[in-house]
Amino acid sequence: MGIYILGIESSCDDTSAAVLEDNKILANVIANQEVHKNYGGVVPELASRAHQQNIIPVVERALTIAKINKKQIQAVAFTNGPGLLGSLLVGTSFSKSFALGLNIPIIDVNHIQAHILAHFIQDDEAEKEFPTFPFLCLLVSGGHTQIVRVDDYFKMEIIGQTIDDAAGEAFDKAAKMMGIPYPGGPLVDQYAKLGNSDTFTFSKPNIPELNYSFSGLKTSFLYFLRDNLKTNPAFIEENQNDLCASIQKTIVEVLMDKLKKASLKTGIKQIAIAGGVSANSALRQAIVDGQNQFGWKTFIPKFAYCTDNAAMIAIAGYYKYLNKDFAMQDITPFTRQ
Fold first, then answer.
1. pLDDT score of 46
2. pLDDT tens across 192-245, in order?
3. Long-range interactions of 218-221: CB distance < 8 A, separation 24+
């Protein structure tokens, strides 16, 4: 019999529960919060209230899908940060209580590390190939943009990161400037497929070493739209697909330029991507192209493991369980890395 881990994810606006048997996924349930669309972004207080409503049904559903009894769970892994404090408190409090009632250990998981470790989830009958250490992981989300050198499951070093805004935020803000509803990033990707990415050119930031910056690109995009709207009020409407394709191409090229540089600098050709923006079709294609052009061995997560989910928390918990790396009941969440 394997090791059954219950994973709980509640760092932002998705309530998720997953069950793993060793590294194999048995269930991964996610409850999204539609209320934030009315506000154009996540409202922390509303998010925490929704987590309180969703967490018990989500856990019950995960256990049902996994076809196991809660008494078979051997540990509870939960997101301890970074994230929204109110949201994290809901998941942390539930995990502590659940584990205390069953007299089983709790395992605190770093949300960022979990995104990377999602590559080690076994989710079908056929054995899949996992990254071998060391590898580089481009972690791209709404709140983080990092290049991480991964030498072991929990031996990770950030060798490049954004000095201001994240790539995911750049996608969402560009979408908002064009009047595209929240969450805009996936819709930019969708419209970009219908456009010409060479129609408009935007300057790339010149940041030293392996670091990123996206605030200047957001500002220049804003001014570009403003100037064109002065002469043509229908400019965005008439050029939406091409605008989406062009700004997406620029963001992906910025991400890839630094990743190529990191691979050359470290000599590492095992390349992975993770985080919400790793679902972007242009970025996924760029990684595949990198495999063909530079001899990389690439690892692209399934869409289910790109955005926030409890399966990635459970897999991180599994490897910490093997090390008997447990948390105490007095542990508290942290909001920033």
1. 85
2. 999 999 999 999 998 989 999 999 999 999 999 999 999 999 999 999 999 999
3. 218/165, 218/170, 218/173, 218/174, 221/174, 221/177, 221/247
Instruction: Provide the residue count of the chain.
Output: 337
Helix (H) or strand (E) holding 296: none
**CA–CA separation, 103 and 213 (whole Å):** 46
DSSP string, 79-122: EEESS-HHHHHHHHHHHHHHHHHHT--EEEEEHHHHHHHGGG-B
pLDDT at 128 over 90: no
For tokens 């819709």, the residue is 187
> Domains of the chain, with CATH numbers?
4-123+306-322 (3.30.420.40), 135-301 (3.30.420.40)
Using alpha carbons, select from 281, 16, 2, 273 the residue that is nearest to residue 145: 273
